Predict the structure.
Amino acid sequence: MANTQDIRRRIKSIRNTAQITKAMQMVAASKMRKAQQHALAGRPYASLMNRVLVSLQERTDPKLHPLLQVREVKKELVIVVSTDKGLAGALNTNLLREAANFDTSKTVYVVLGRKARQFLSRTRREILADFELKDAPAFPETKVVAQFATEKFLSGEVDKVSVLFTHFVNTVNQKPTVRTLLPISTFEVAQAESDNRDARDGADPMGGYIFEPSAERVLDVMLPYYLQYQVFQMILDARASEHSARMVAMKNATDNAKQFIKDLTLEYNKMRQASITTELLEISTAQMAVGG
């Protein structure tokens, strides 16, 4: 049975751990706010880009563009966006469980994040590329990922490109999500503009504008940028999810440590009180024996 000295040592150790988890919680909260701000800052650009794409869809035949052509899926490329570090609760576990559901004989992978790389290597899955990104990547850094996937699709090496990432719902809820990047369907382009009144009414959201040199040429330029921006937004979403999950995990660890300290302090006081009571009984018994 532990004595009071052992309990004091445990309380000190847990208190030090709680200080570390509290600091990690504050750091994760700060990074989460920055990641959310970065994601929100790109919404005006995304809205305008989607308006242009919907307008181009109305003025051209999207089926003629190679990025929109649907083929029989013989090989699929999956871009997995995970974290580099742990201590994020069940975030990576849920994400990699989804990654394990893909058919290994028909799937190749592009990895963003050390946790995904370790899992895919351990399960002996084919990794085509491994990209390392900063904690808060800029658009030019993520652009190469979309370019690599686009090249593989256009060359015919893969017939479909999907992205597996953690979608940020709110601070306590993050959901593993698989989204098709290529081929781009006309429905997806129009759906992105579903909040626009003109798009819902079937009108051209860019009516009155003339595309030069032609709508087809502009579409050729816009679609690659659309893909690059989609990948960028998914990575920002994954980063916000990571920092949110880590903040919640560290908060839970800090709360558990405080509760553990409270329970140990109560046990320590009980043992100390029992020791004092025993000493008093011994003194009283000794006095009675001397007096007798």
User: Anything to note?
Assistant: The chain has a mean pLDDT of 82. Helices lie at 4-41, 43-59, 91-99, 114-122, 139-154, 186-191, 197-200, 215-291. The domain at 24-249 is CATH 3.40.1380.10 (Pyruvate Kinase; Chain: A, domain 1). The first helix runs from residue 4 to 41.
